[in-house]
Design goal:
This protein has 199 residues and is of the alpha+beta class. The chain has a single domain (3-196), classed as Jelly Rolls. It is built from 3 helices and 10 strands, in the order H-E-H-E-H-E-E-E-E-E-E-E-E. Strand 6 (120-123) and strand 7 form a beta hairpin. The relative contact order is 0.24.
Length: 199
């Protein structure tokens, strides 16, 4: 296992996505929002948020990045699901641990409309609060069920929109392996019943 990841329970991966990929995924979620195809309720943020669960373009990236993240962190990973949000001015992400299907989680900044970076906070294995400033394309890979994480209010001058994508994995033959594909038949299989169990 990657020594930094083993020690802290998380690792920052700069430029996990290139700019072109971020622009494409940002355009996808904005278009879904424009056509009222996003989910408008989120237990961790509130009712006035736009989210998408396991949309095919996002799941394709999840699958594509599996090998890289497995090798980077020294863990045999299986894809579980993707989720993406568009945060708006005033939003806060509650301090929380992730559910079983996010045994290993990755949060990636896709873009937005703001003046300064909006950090993710995560508690290290030593109990220290770590501030992660994430530029477009940067990813934070972490033990979702073990490392508490959150965001302070997105409420500074110039803050309007902030898009974030999440790629969740479980360990092959690990204690949460049953959550592979988030218990769906396959990636991008977006059965409405699964909306009841996310976030």
């Amino acid at each position: 296992m990657n020594s930094e990841f083993k020690e802290n329970g998380f690792i920052v991966i700069r430029n996990l996505f290139n700019k072109a990929l971020c622009n494409s995924l940002y355009a996808v979620i904005c278009k879904l929002k424009e056509h009222n195809l996003t989910r408008r309720s989120d237990l961790l943020v509130g009712d006035d948020v736009d989210g998408v669960y396991c949309t095919p373009p996002f799941d394709m990236v999840l699958d594509h990045k599996t090998k890289f993240l497995s090798e980077k962190c020294g863990i045999g990973l299986i894809p579980a699901y993707t989720y993406a949000r568009i945060y708006k001015k005033g939003h806060t992400l509650k301090k929380h641990f992730d559910r079983s299907a996010s045994e290993y989680n990755t949060t990636i900044h896709l873009g937005g409309k703001y003046k300064t970076l909006w950090p993710v906070w995560i508690e290290s294995a030593k109990g220290e609060d770590f501030k992660c400033d994430m530029g477009i394309g940067d990813g934070l890979f972490f033990k979702g069920c073990e490392r508490e994480h959150w965001r302070e209010p997105f409420d500074r001058d110039g803050d309007k929109l902030h898009a974030q994508m999440f790629m969740s994995y479980v360990e092959k033959n690990g204690k949460y392996a049953e959550w592979a594909f988030d218990k769906r038949d396959s990636l991008s299989h977006n059965d409405p019943k699964h909306w009841k169990i996310i976030r």
